[in-house]
Design a protein that fits this description.
Blueprint lengths: L57 E5 L4 H13 L6 E4 L28 H7 L11 E4 L4 E4 L2 H10 L18 H16 L1 H6 L4 H22 L12 H17 L14 H11 L10 H11 L57
């Protein structure tokens, strides 16, 4: 997710986001158009872009609040890449300049030694002119960002990092299903993943209503598809499920109210609600979700939508752990593979930020 703002002066180390420098996300009188030009450098097994796959060399910088970054957390967990690719986590809020490492002691990433991910961008591209986004992968020896191309990052985790996959890792992007996965992903991205933002960041009534109609038309279509099969493509979890899941988990806590996607809550859509709970209860999915940070991010950062910065107490999240009965449709989440082990203690979502278990 981008700060969507031009560069500004960087605060001193450890100060965190600058409250006096909030981002702006809505352009009055216009619909929202996402800048999708990312740093396309890739980390590959053959190192053709100058960055070969190498355990311990790279650091994934993410934020639990961000749906685009949440994808990388899930895929890294499912494939067992935790020991090969270290993880740096930004806090849930940021200013117009950059995401910050305000969760770490002294406000500095303990490996990169920087307070703002912008510093890694500018190490490679001085005066980097575009939005500072997470997820990003940083080359630790040089301290420079390699890529922030989030759709490609997770595909490359599946295809280029196979030498470091855990035993039993699932095939999230199997060759025989790639064309169908790509087709599904394209529709989910334009209408749902980005569709909620086109609703929330719309600058006029007509743009909002068009985005709203497109969003719920697609959700109805996905409900019909998933009424017949457990997963979006094939009989196991794939990249397609990862991409839809991160939007669904944020729907009721954020998008329904904050982004005015309010025809219905996710929990009022029986098929999608059961599908989301099925994935949430699958190891590697729900255990990456931090509902507290998600709400803090959207309601505090988007001051032009929510000027007070008040974070709502609701909704009730306890129902995420209720039975979903999706197993009746067949399929196995990991196919012939196995679930990932529990998260490393240092990477576990704090219990108080998750869902009530009692």
């Amino acid at each position: 997710m981008s700060t969507n703002m031009p560069p500004a002066d960087t605060p001193a180390a450890g100060t965190g986001p600058d409250a006096a420098n909030p981002g702006r996300y809505v352009t009055e009188g216009q619909g929202f158009v996402r800048d999708t030009k990312y740093i396309e450098t890739r980390i590959t097994a053959d190192g053709r872009d100058g960055y070969p796959v190498e355990a311990g060399r790279y650091r994934l910088v993410a934020a639990r609040a961000c749906p685009w970054a949440n994808r990388t957390l899930i895929v890294r967990r499912l494939l067992g890449l935790e020991d090969a690719i270290s993880l740096g986590l930004c806090g849930p809020t940021h200013d117009a300049d950059s995401w910050t490492f305000d969760l770490d002691p002294g406000g500095l990433d303990p490996v990169l030694g920087i307070p703002r991910i912008k510093d890694a961008y500018e190490r490679r591209f001085p005066d980097y002119p575009k939005g500072i986004t997470v997820p990003a992968i940083v080359d630790v020896p040089s301290g420079a960002v390699v890529t922030n191309d989030f759709p490609q990052i997770t595909i490359d985790f599946s295809l280029e990092w196979t030498a470091f996959h855990r035993d039993g890792a699932p095939e999230l992007y199997p060759d025989a299903l790639r064309a169908e996965i790509d087709e599904v992903n394209q529709g989910v991205y334009t209408e749902v993943n980005n569709g909620v933002y086109r609703c929330g960041f719309a600058g006029d009534q007509a743009s909002y209503e068009a985005a709203y109609d497109r969003l719920f038309t697609k959700l109805d279509e996905l409900s019909e598809r998933l009424s017949r099969q457990r997963y979006l493509v094939g009989k196991t979890i794939t990249e397609a499920d990862v991409r839809l899941f991160t939007t669904l988990t944020r729907f009721d806590p954020v998008y329904h109210g904050h982004f005015k996607c309010n025809r219905s809550t996710l929990s009022a859509l029986p098929v999608l609600w059961a599908y989301a709970r099925d994935l949430f209860q699958t190891p590697g999915f729900g255990d990456t979700v931090d509902f507290t940070q998600i709400k803090q991010h959207y309601y505090i950062v988007h001051r032009d939508i929510n000027p007070t910065g008040i974070v709502p107490k609701g909704p009730d999240l306890s129902h995420w752990l209720t039975p979903h009965h999706r197993e009746q449709l067949g399929g196995r989440p990991f196919g012939d593979g196995t679930p990932p082990p529990p998260p490393k203690p240092a990477e576990a979502v704090p219990a108080e930020n998750w869902v009530p278990t009692e």
